[in-house]
Amino acid sequence: MRDIKVKEGDHVEAGQLLLTLDPETYRNAIEREEASRRQSAINIDRQRLALALAEKRLARGAQLIEQKMIGQSEYDDLRNARDLARVELQSSEEALRRADAILSEAREQLSKTDVRAPITGTIVDLPIKIGETAIASTNAFAGASLMKIADTSAIQAELKVDEADIARVSVGQSVDVYATAFPETALKGKVQRIALAPTLENQARTYEVVVLMEPPEDLALRSGMSARADIFLGDGASRLAVPVEAVGSEESEDKKTERFVWVDRDGYARRVVVQVGQSDDRWEEITDGLTAGDRVITGPAKLLRGLMDGDRVRASAPADKAKARMDADAVAATDGEAAAE
């Protein structure tokens, strides 16, 4: 590293000179390739003269063979010498083209000793120092990373989503991002990109989800901050939902899983098959089978498993819920009643 023109935190424009590498090695390569090109050009001139001489000798030989002054074998030798001169000229021309390509590559390498900004942004990391060796590598070797430039006009969050949930994530979904430095501030964003290939971490597969955000200007965010995020799978509209513990499942005769809930119909338990949609830790969406206002029966799983279609049920006040759960076994054993909410 010969010279560094910027420092960490500087704002740079696209095309601005950032640093200069030592160009001596590349200049020597250019001088070597220029000499090789000149040698190829001299060989071409030599071969052109040889071809012109061979063509003259062949023309003279054609006159002599017509006059029966030379034999056919001598004429054939002259013609072969002319053809050989043509081939050697073509070989020298190809050598010149190769020398031009190598010289062009050497000049391109020299131009890369002046490293310029590929984008407009801010220098967020500058690990290289003057005098250190820059290594052309994508690995985490010392000298492999010269600097990092970030476009701070747009901030993105890179999230890791488990493979069990990635199927429900799609581009355009709303996301609330909570930076560790601002745990109470929800940064609004939208899913911009979803990785097609997973990454393996501690035997778990996760997919990278990139979220584009527009944070407030007065929020001092820094590149590399850790964060958590809430991805909203729906559009925020109100939907019919029931507590997750109220939904049961059963495998039908045709090996299909059937979802159902117990509903209070005039004081009697009725089994209703439903279609479910999105869910979270507390609620499960019902897309078919129920209507708003239906009284869905909830309670301990043991009690719900023992319900039969037609069992009597009674409503339980919120203050009596704990007692209803404690007495669930006794209620089921005596009169088969359950709590309806």
Structural class: alpha+beta
Gross morphology is elongated
- Number of strand elements: 19
| Assembly state of the chains shown | single chain
CATH architecture name of the largest domain: Beta Barrel
What is the arithmetic mean of pLDDT?
83
User: At the first level of CATH, what is the class of the largest domain?
Assistant: Mainly Beta
How many independent structural domains? 4
Number of contiguous helices: 5
CATH topology of the largest domain: conserved putative lor/sdh protein from methanococcus maripaludis s2 fold
The value of Rg in angstroms is: 41 Å
**Fraction of residues in H or I helices:** 25-40%
Note the beta-strand portion. Answer: 25-35%
Summarize, please.
This protein is 30% helix and 28% strand. With 341 residues, it is α+β, with helices and mostly antiparallel strands.
General description of the model:
The protein has 341 residues and is an alpha+beta fold. The protein folds into four domains: 1-22 and 114-153, RNA polymerase II/Efflux pump adaptor protein, barrel-sandwich hybrid domain (OB fold (Dihydrolipoamide Acetyltransferase, E2P)); 23-112; 154-231, Beta Barrel (Elongation Factor Tu (Ef-tu), domain 3), CATH 2.40.30; 241-340, conserved putative lor/sdh protein from methanococcus maripaludis s2 fold. Helices cover 30% and strands 28% of the residues. A hairpin with a 2-residue loop joins strand 10 and strand 11 (204-213). Helix 1 packs antiparallel against helix 2 (72-111). The model is unreliable at 321-341 (pLDDT under 50).
List the SSEs and their pairings.
Blueprint: E1 3-4, E2 11-12, E3 17-20, H1 24-66, H2 72-111, E4 114-116, E5 121-125, E6 148-150, E7 155-162, E8 174-179, E9 187-194, E10 199-201, E11 204-213, E12 227-231, E13 241-243, E14 248-251, E15 257-265, E16 268-279, E17 283-288, H3 301-305, E18 314-315, H4 321-326, H5 328-334, E19 339-340
Parallel strand pairs: 18-19
Antiparallel strand pairs: 1-3, 2-5, 3-4, 5-6, 7-11, 8-9, 8-12, 9-11, 10-11, 13-17, 14-15, 15-16, 16-17
